[in-house]
Design brief:
Elements (H helix, E strand, L loop, with lengths): L2 E10 L4 E3 L5 E3 L3 H4 L10 H7 L9 E2 L9 E13 L6 H13 L6 E5 L5 H11 E4 L2 E5 L12 H14 L5 E5 L2 E4 L4 E2 L8 E2 L7 E2 L22 E3 L7 E5 L6 H8 L4 E6 L10 H12 L3 E6 L13 H9 L2 E2 L5 H11 L7 H9 L12
Parallel strand pairs: 1-5, 1-6, 6-8, 8-9, 15-16, 16-17, 17-18
Antiparallel strand pairs: 2-3, 4-5, 7-14, 9-10, 10-13, 11-12
Helix pairs in contact: 3-4, 4-9, 6-7
Length: 370
Amino acid sequence: MTERRILVIYTGGTFGMLKDHRGVLVPQRDIERRIIRKLPQLHDNEYWTKNLAETEKQKYLVIPDGKDTNLRILYKIIETEEIKDSSDFTNEDWIMMAREIKKYYHDYDGFVVLHGTDTTAYGASVLSFMLESVGKTVVLTGAQVPIFQPRSDGNNNLLCAILIAATQHIPEVTVFFGAKLFRGTRVKKVSNTRIYAFDSPNYPPLLESKTTLDIDPKMLIHPAGSVPDDCVLHDQLSKKVYLLKVTPTITPEIIRAMFQGMEGVVLETYGNGNIPIKRKEIYKEIEQAVKNNVLIVNVTQCVNGIVHGKPLYETGLLLIECGVIPAYDMTSEAAQAKLSYVLSKPGLTYAERVELMKTNIRGELHNPHL
């Protein structure tokens, strides 16, 4: 039977948490020995004992046979140096994850990242941009209920993520959660209580887990065979990027303080990309920031929606005239990740960075004007 080898990178999050002496959930190490090897859904111990225990493959786990594939799927779990709640993740953590994928790229057929749900949308977007070219499937997943608990959703999330990484050729960063596979630059966390915690508001899922795991090739950014089996990594990100949400109490002082020292700002606006029209002092602050070469991207606060390059309302037109970049249908997480990436690319002029923000490079947006 043909083998596929998958690397699972465990970074922390709810997936591997246990309650401590205070009764609160904290990340735990050594999840393979403590729980995953004991779960028949995730490890065929009989096959491992007969075929791998006395070989160089003894450190692998084995997915049990099933109808999804005739392949024998082996996987190895490695844990990052520090296991964290994903609320503590920063750019440095995602750079580390991307470097791990690059380091082991030619040793495995696909990659799964066990990631905390709170920042999965940020992490998936950041990894999508940093991995400028990737010829293998990368899947982020996690759990709403820890794997140590009987009702955990982590079992099925991890199983499906490994199966997808091993059997589907999807050369991009993705997120599997609940029953759906999403593009990494299109996903948002929409619930902290439901098992189906994620959605892709402006783009359909790449795959839905049914009795089979099949993807429509038309959903992919790159047609089959068009991406070389290699990994091109850009492992730099600007730290001088942040998000400012427009509310009725916003003031010029808030905008001025927010933009101070920033290279890029995601501006979350009302509806189609609007801010108060009668507050001219607000526009002056935004206009001045653009003159200071701050990249400002206009993203709607709505879960579904588009900020057009040709605005529908006068309030949106004024932002365009100030030099603010329309995000089209990008999520705020993708816009922030893309800004961090674009601003770290050397040798680009301000105008070139503006055009790159308007251009679809990882399936993150649809610009009808290009």
